[in-house]
Design a protein that fits this description.
Length: about 290
């Protein structure tokens, strides 16, 4: 029984003795903590600096598209197509590979031993969040310090603007040409019907079916209407040039801000260094005590 009691007593933690022991080794604890905090500080200084760029997109005036309302797809409008192109990873990848304005970009990729696609994965891009909601017209890009003065996101947005303008103009032009072709065919049919002098059936008030010859003037009127519509549609093709110019001169960037994306603050790293220093110093003191007993 006495042996067991002595064994328990030896294993029990003597708190006053522990505190005295820690106090006696305060110089060691302080030294280790300072070393760990200095290590955390040096680590922070050597961390690669990333910058977060936030840009708000400026929508073009919808009145620009009003003349083309009959052939302009509202579901697939300019702004929707612009935002779709902006968020498409392949477009961002194409821009990175084609962009010659980014100074020493190839050298940067070689130095880091990464590809353009890996670069895009490392430096996130997407819609900016305010709380839990995405801001539809606001986007962010996190880039390394080397490219903070290269207007990386500005150039990418201009690249997307040009791509979207080309696609939307071609879309409207294609739709216009289809409608023009339909009107031309209808005009030809109208003229042929007029030459054949077709018979129309109508029912009079006595429910008797009579054969009526449509006056030729009405055929000419139909032809004139179709011809006038064709003239208007062909004018829209010319107006496409003005639309192209208006969209090209439009500035897609409404607002922009950039700040250091500091994911690991200095205070956090210093506190972490202090805690690790305390833990390490206590561990050293504990093992020293065990070695003395042995």
């Amino acid at each position: 029984m006495d042996t067991k009691q002595n064994h328990v007593t030896e294993d029990d933690i003597n708190l006053p003795e522990l505190i005295i022991n820690l106090w006696r080794n305060k110089a060691l604890i302080l030294t280790i903590c300072i070393i760990c905090m200095l290590s955390a500080y040096v680590y922070k200084l050597n961390l690669p600096k990333n910058f977060k760029i936030i840009i708000t997109i400026n929508e073009p005036n919808n009145n620009l598209f009003k003349p083309f309302s009959d052939v302009y797809e509202k579901k697939n409008n300019y702004q929707s197509l612009f935002l779709y192109n902006l968020l498409k990873l392949q477009n961002l990848n194409d821009f990175v590979e084609q962009n010659e304005k980014i100074e020493n970009f190839s050298a940067y990729l070689e130095k880091k031993e990464i590809t353009a696609k890996q670069f895009l994965k490392d430096y996130r891009f997407g819609q900016f969040q305010e709380g839990k909601k995405n801001n539809v017209n606001t986007f962010f890009l996190i880039i390394p310090e080397e490219f903070k003065d290269n207007k990386f996101l500005d150039d990418y947005i201009k690249f997307i603007k040009n791509k979207t303008i080309f696609e939307i103009i071609e879309n409207i032009r294609t739709n216009l040409l289809i409608v023009i072709e339909i009107h031309k065919n209808n005009l030809d049919i109208s003229k042929k019907i007029n030459l054949k002098n077709p018979i129309l059936l109508s029912v009079d008030s006595h429910s008797l079916t009579n054969v009526i010859y449509k006056p030729s003037e009405l055929y000419y009127e139909d032809s004139k209407v179709l011809s006038e519509k064709l003239i208007q549609l062909e004018k829209l093709l010319v107006l496409l040039v003005d639309l192209d110019k208006a969209l090209t001169t439009h500035d897609p960037i409404l607002g922009k801000e950039m700040y250091l994306n500091d994911s690991k603050s200095l205070n956090f790293l210093l506190a972490l260094g202090l805690l690790f220093g305390l833990f390490l110093s206590v561990l050293i003191i504990f093992f020293r005590k065990i070695l003395k007993k042995n």
